[in-house]
Fold this sequence. Notes:
The chain is mainly α and about 290 residues long. The protein folds into 3 domains: about 1-75 and about 275-290, no CATH class; about 80-180; about 185-260. Helices cover about 60% and strands about 0% of the residues. It contains 12 helices and no strands. Helix 2 (about 20-25) crosses helix 4 (about 45-80), helix 2 packs across helix 9 (about 185-205) and helix 3 (about 30-40) packs across helix 4 (about 45-80). The radius of gyration is 21 Å and the shape is globular.
Amino acid sequence: MDQPEGVNDFLRKVGVQTCADIRGLWKTAREFCEEVESSLSTTFDPTTAFQVAKAFTRAVRVANEELVGHVDCLVSERASSQRLVLREGPCEPPPSTSIPGKVRRLLALGVEPAEHRLNPDTVADPAAKEASAKKAKVDLIFRIAMEDLVDLKELGLSWNALRDPVRLQSTKEALTQSASRLGVARLTTLLSSVKRWKRYCLEKDYPIRHPTALMMSEFLAMVGHGGPTAAASMWHALLWWSTSFGLGWPLDHFACKPYRFHAPQHRATQAAELEPWEFINLVQLTVASRGY
């Protein structure tokens, strides 16, 4: 991102790698700008603030375009076949757990009945796109949980048993009840959080599924360098994963629990009112970014 000095360093500290990360971590340009200012211990002048807001809006637009492209590709793939099980072909590279190739392909494809899939005509509807995007994220949450988090033995399952698409679908429905009740924005945040945790574990050679309290405390402390609210947001995201999939992560341990709150120096303050010209510029930027 072409940003004023210090903003790119802030994004790197937070762990932002893609435009989708920016869209998932901050809901509005104002929230993003305020957190950048807080991290840099400064207050942007109106021109700089407008540049930061403009870059944020551009990143969100790019992320949305990528999401729409992903949804279109997904729908096109699924519309090309009415069968649940794919023909045998080359498997993807093996993940951290040993998953049979057939089950891995089912996880990647999604296992819902064919009649519930969207067709290219339906995807043009905004509501259908929203539903398809949500379903894609729920599928990804299920896949991450199965590959890296859930202990199948505790559930009385095995990978061989999950070769059956019907059994895999019923397992998915049981394990994604919590995720299915959330919106796309929250699901995006949860996915971004667990992916960052996974990357951290791989870098440190820590166990993703069974970390110690000290390991999680170190991770939350690192995240906290990104801003006064970053660690608290991550703590609550990891808590959702822990409770939703029975992971028992030690987030209530005295080494981790303090991170559930914002940093002590953080104070919520009323944002300055927009000048009329600032509001007009933001409206024009929004209209231009959406192609109206």
